[in-house]
Automatic annotation (TrEMBL), chains A, B:
Transiently phosphorylated on a His residue during the reaction cycle. Phosphorylation strongly increases the affinity for substrates and increases the rate of nicotinate D-ribonucleotide production. Dephosphorylation regenerates the low-affinity form of the enzyme, leading to product release. It comes from the Bacteria. The gene is pncB. Catalyzes the first step in the biosynthesis of NAD from nicotinic acid, the ATP-dependent synthesis of beta-nicotinate D-ribonucleotide from nicotinate and 5-phospho-D-ribose 1-phosphate. It catalyses: 5-phospho-alpha-D-ribose 1-diphosphate + nicotinate + ATP + H2O = nicotinate beta-D-ribonucleotide + ADP + phosphate + diphosphate. Its EC number is 6.3.4.21. This is Nicotinate phosphoribosyltransferase. It comes from Nitrospira defluvii. The keyword Ribosomal protein does not apply. Residues 8-131 form the Nicotinate phosphoribosyltransferase N-terminal domain.
Length: 444, 444
């Protein structure tokens, strides 16, 4: 995982366009906004995430000498382009919705205001970071809503799309309300809780399942969670009960058992009975194995006595919607608002602000997208977070982002909290913005 | 993108189990195999990819001091575990199918033979690397088959799941037969061709579309591909024709135009006519915009005069199947074959080999999964690639892997080459393996 040269992690055309802008001295101030065009069929809203990584990227943006050497040997870049890239840092401003904010299609969640070559060059990585974490947070909070307080744990690393996906999915799901992750590096990097149980291989490597339970309990005495489905789930639950007393004598309690296959609701019922009968009423049941929010909801609706859920692949990859229809579009250049009119992909021009009204019940009651500077009723959602290439304030802790996300979910009307598709939330385009669009069209 | 500590990029339970194995002196030789349980509904085969990154990971596997410090402060690891981890390197053997090999469910593509704690600890990252690249290669080669020689370019970076996904998707699609990528870092890292055009923002930043075309052509004179759908596609095509003469006088020819929205087939027809009428018969048409193999096939079947395709998000995220149902399972420990019998997730025990028969037409004619050491008709697909933690030979170049993949696709029967679901390919379990499974079951 050699990951030098994040600055080269970009589409070639960004560099080619930068060369053209520099050659033409088109270095005026450009305004780009990031937004999502539409909701996937199984989402009623999005949750913003990824801003922290974007700001770090922008603050540290620079071309290393080896990057410039590589660009030079392609023969496609002039000495004056290379000199300009060598000196280039990100000197622009950023406005954004805080991470954990709920948002809807066409609402910008990030605005970059910077000299055109800079604002263009950062496009690919900014999109890459915002698309992924926003996608994961928007998926993860669906499980959070249906779990109704039961802890959820991210188990998705092995099938996440590479190293960074595993790492950032752990972060995005945690800020959306997950209790933690199995991903050790995410724990080390983000200071988030890590959880682990044991694998089937551990049981198989032993001659005897009960012996395997004993050994893993001794190896992590503070959080014993035993995997009981390697051979026969209920038989294994009986072994857990039998083991409990001797473990207790060693000062070790069995925190939980994990079910990973078969009819989870049925196994959970039977195992709960066995555990309770054996006096292990405090031992929790953790379910895992191809879970997603639909299955979590179905299991709980069926009354399955499951206390916590490990949600992996489906969440980490956002399997039912593995990308967002997102865009990073030029909305203004050198003081002139602009828009794209490509069929089916037209955008709203200019610098925008989103105002959100809450109803008397404290729930979301309609958003308005308007041009910046126009004050409207409600709370403005976009705030300045970076000026002249520097953060305006230290980043909020991930715990603070979690709090913000929790409030955001609590403010959702009930219809939007359901898993099935709701009637679209009321997002209006202000007259001022409509007029600006017409004006731009007349002049293009 | 701070990516220290790849070794901590693992599930917590791997470390806990390692602690238990070490405490119990369970350091005998373990055999794990990686395989995929079943085909997604829109795949007829898989293409193996990711081995190169796995071998690099294994060769460089070690815990850095900062990793050990972090583990120590969690309070969950004993001094003797930490000492063992500090000294640990990967000293095992690896057998694998070469990258670019076509394979089917239940066929192992990688076998790791190593002391149990090592073989267990590498599980998460090995799965993470093989799952992702194999998934992308298996998706990408579907576009390769339907494009019938027309160049395909990876444009997926912005919606790939983070940095490493973008990088490795470029690699995996290239080895599967793509012509190159827009991803500059992938070009620098893997020596693969990079391609770029221009963005709508570039046109919008100019007052005049024709002026934008001129400026980008001057900025990358060796590969001029003009994006013509920002406002009116056919009107822009006329501007391209008008520009061609003056560019020719500057020694610049217009290599292609790019269509990115609307009815691509219809626009391609009209644009082809305009270009040909204007004498630009050599100017290629590149199509992009939410393309996948189904759309590429439909466009070509409709007779659309499209010369090359940029395939992005759908390929990079394998959007219709964004993960594989893959597993890394313990098949033998300390000379004793073992298997998991969990409901719906049972595995075949022991060290395995896959034999492939070719028919008289040179096409695949049936695979046999058997136990290692049993010689059967056909070609064995698993080969030793690492011994005692060291590669047995230098890695093949990516060009050589491409050649292997091209041959593998050419050997596919026509039914498996189609996009729609084919009857399953004939993969049999050898009697020797069936017997071993029964024997293992009797002794568990």
């Amino acid at each position: 995982m050699n990951t030098a040269s994040e600055t080269l992690l970009t589409d070639l055309y960004e560099l080619t366009m930068a060369q053209a802008y520099l050659a033409q001295e088109m270095t005026g101030i450009a305004v780009f906004e990031f937004f999502v065009r539409k909701l996937p069929s199984r989402r009623n809203f999005f949750m913003a995430a990824g801003l922290e990584q974007v700001l770090t990227y922008l603050e540290t943006f620079h071309f290393a000498e080896r990057d410039l050497d590589w660009l030079a040997q392609t023969g496609n870049f002039t000495p004056s382009t290379l000199a300009a890239l060598r000196a280039m840092r990100f000197t622009g401003d950023v406005h954004a919705m805080p991470e954990g904010t709920v948002f809807f299609p066409h609402e910008p969640i990030l605005r970059i205001t910077a000299p055109l070559p800079q604002a263009q060059l950062v496009e690919t990585r900014v999109m890459n970071l915002l698309n992924f974490q926003t996608m994961v947070a928007s998926k993860a909070c669906r499980s959070v809503m249906v779990a109704e307080g039961r802890p959820l744990i991210d188990f998705g690393l092995r099938r996440s799309h590479g190293a960074e996906a595993g790492l950032l999915a752990a972060r995005a799901s945690y800020l959306a309300g997950f209790a933690g992750t199995s991903n050790v590096l995410a724990g080390a990097r983000f200071g988030m809780p890590t959880y682990g149980t044991m694998a089937h291989a551990f049981v198989q490597a032993h001659h005897d399942e009960a012996e395997a339970f004993l050994h893993i309990a001794q190896a992590q005495p503070r959080n014993v969670v035993l995997l009981i489905d390697t051979y026969d789930t209920e038989a294994a639950a009986e072994k857990v009960v039998a083991l409990a007393t001797s473990l207790k004598n060693q000062g070790i309690s069995i925190h939980g058992v994990r079910l990973d296959s078969g009819d989870l609701a049925d196994h959970a019922q039977k195992v709960r009975l066995i555990l309770d009968r054996g006096g292990l009423t405090d031992t929790k049941i953790l379910a895992s194995g191809n879970l997603d929010e639909e299955r979590v909801e179905a299991l709980l609706k069926s009354g399955a006595p499951i206390d916590r859920f490990a949600v992996g692949t489906a969440m980490t990859t956002s399997a039912d919607a593995p990308y967002l229809d997102c865009a990073y579009k030029l909305q203004e250049y050198a003081g002139r608002p602009c828009r794209k009119r490509s069929e089916g992909k037209a955008t709203w021009p200019g610098r925008k602000q989103v105002y959100r009204r809450l109803g008397r019940d404290g729930r979301l009651d309609g958003d308005l997208i308007t041009i910046e500077g126009e004050t409207r009723p409600g709370l403005p959602l976009l705030h300045p977070v970076m000026q002249n290439g520097r953060r305006l304030a230290p980043s909020p802790s991930i715990e603070k982002i979690r709090d913000h996300a929790r409030l955001a979910l609590a403010e959702l009307p009930d219809t939007l909290r359901r898993l099935d598709q709701a009637a679209p939330y009321d997002v209006r385009i202000a007259e001022a913005l409509e007029q600006l669009a017409q004006q731009v069209d007349r002049h293009t």
